[in-house]
Design a protein that fits this description.
74 residues; alpha+beta; two-stranded antiparallel sheet
Length: 74
């Protein structure tokens, strides 16, 4: 329990007489969620016949707009 509290809460350290606050918790998203999201996007692109999405950015944009990911951006 204590290690979880240490990871989630900010730890305070002393250096050169000043208090510095550092966080020990991760700032990145959950890797499982991120990986599954990218896998899902790649699978959907392969279904549509796009093997290398970086070479067909126009189609990728259309797919993202159709799925409401980029409605407010473009």
């Amino acid at each position: 329990m204590l290690s979880r509290v240490n990871r989630l809460n900010a730890s305070v350290r002393r250096r050169r007489g000043k208090l510095l606050r550092t966080t020990t918790a991760k700032a990145s998203p959950d890797p499982k969620y991120t990986a599954s999201m990218y896998d899902e996007i790649e699978n959907r692109l392969r279904i549509r016949g796009i093997e290398e999405p970086s070479k067909d950015l126009g189609t990728l944009k259309q797919i993202l707009v159709a799925n409401s990911y980029l409605d407010h951006v473009f």
